[in-house]
Amino acid sequence: MVGNYRFVIERKKTSYQFKKNMTSPDSWDGNHNAQHNMEDTVRLYDGYHEVFRFLAQTVANMPGCRHTDTIVPGNFFVKWDVPRRAFKGHIHGFVGAYDQDGQKIDGDSVERVVGKNGAPTDLARWIFGHSTAKNDPAPLGEFTRYAWSAGCTITTWQKQGELFEIGTRVGFKAGDLIPCELIEVD
After folding, report:
1. Can you list the pairs that 114-118 forms with residues at least 24 positions away whose Cβ atoms lie under 8 Å?
2. Separation between Cα atoms, residue 112 and residue 99, nearest integer Å
3. Alpha carbon distance 37, 61 (integer Å)
4. Any idea what the Cα angle at residue 179 is, between residues 173 and 2, rounded to 5°?
5. Is the predicted pLDDT of residue 142 greater than 90, yes or no?
């Protein structure tokens, strides 16, 4: 039961400046693509009462990704506990969001645009994947230095786990659609 629950994602405008020099090529070297990392805030509310809060990376900053796959401000849904694909832990999908290219994320939490920027047919959009434990097929215990996003909203593996525990406790079930609003703040 979703009830009066909703998410609010506050993206700082500085999050778009994920490089010291935004005209420089992408790079995994040092912290090149990791400026202003994890400075956005995600809140879960029950009505007007804040239930949970955590920091996240909401701008596509992964070297080599399509940075325009960043989700734009607006209203959409979080689809609770979707199949995890390459992610570890319980993840949740976006539904009804749009990226900076104007492409809509469908009910399967997928953007289906054949050949967009040379991309395959299916481009996954996820929310609350974690930032620090590497995705499959890396073994458990391998960690990344920063939160890398290719259009996802990324948090730490600890906060991802806490969110799932809270959602389970309040009765969220796999496939539930929870309202979400993404806003930009200074």
Report:
1. 116/66, 117/66, 117/68
2. 12
3. 9
4. 35
5. no
User: Would you give the DSSP letter of residue 118?
Assistant: G
Over residues 115-129, the mean pLDDT reads 60
At 137 the pLDDT is 58
Local confidence band at 89 (pLDDT 50, 70, 90 cut-offs) = confident
**CA–CA distance, 95 with 75 (Å, rounded to integer):** 10
Domains of the chain: 5-185 (2.40.440.10)
Q: Do the Cβ atoms of 160 and 90 come closer than 8 Å? A: yes
Structure token pair of residue 9: 């994602």
Average pLDDT, integer, range 20-31: 88
CA–CA distance, 107 with 142 (Å, rounded to integer): 32
88: three-class secondary structure by DSSP: coil
How many Cβ atoms from other residues are within 10 Å of residue 49's Cβ? 8
Q: Which pair of tokens denotes residue 46?
A: 């029950």
What φ, ψ does residue 97 adopt, rounded to 5°? -85, 165
In angstroms, how far is CA 67 from the centroid of its own chain?
A: 13
Q: Centre a 10 Å sphere on the Cβ of residue 67 and count the other Cβ atoms it contains.
A: 21
